[in-house]
Amino acid sequence: MPSEKVLDAKKAQVAELIEILKGATTGVLVDYRGLTVEEDTKLRNNLREAGVKYFVVKNTLLRLAANQTGLEDLDSILHGPTALAVSEDAVAPAKVLADFAKDNNKLELKSGFMDGKVLSMDELTQLAKTPSKEVLIAKIMGSLNSPISGLARLLNTIVEGGEEIADLIAKKAADAAPAEAPVAEEAAAEEKAEEAVVEEAPAAEAEETAEAPAEEAPAAE
Length: 221
Hints:
Distance between the termini: 158 Å
Order of helices and strands: HEHEHEHEEHHH
Number of strands: 5
Largest sheet: 5 strands, antiparallel
Radius of gyration: 42 Å
Shape: elongated
């Protein structure tokens, strides 16, 4: 029968695991069986660089901790060697482990969880394909920088050319004016043509009246 000291040590380990599971945004469980010391060292370095905590854990202790944090569904995979990778970064654990497993088929992804919910293998695979936080931030910053860059170029043009913003607006208006002039002239010409037609109409009617033959008066009886 385990001594009281051993039981206290196990309770402390379970309590620590509970805190780890609660504090992690994402966790991934793997079977590391078969990895060489060199491969294991490389994997740990990759995870450390991504800010992921990685450690081997006993299934019995992890099962107790999982049952107290709403992750009971992990129970079915808690057999064989198990290592746990956790992080506040939602993508990093799954991405680093999945990328490593592509070239090291000895590493097997067993399961994972996110925000207190156990993930299916399909969900875990999709999570591993999600761009990292750094990539997403770079894309967002790139989209934000586009209008800023345009504004910077405009301001630089004003400074180097010695032009005021009002002058630039006036220049744009002047450039647009020639394009509108022909339309205005064409409209005026059409209006004059219509007036000419209206003025000629009475004259035409007068001519028709003058040319019409006079009716003969009836013969006297």
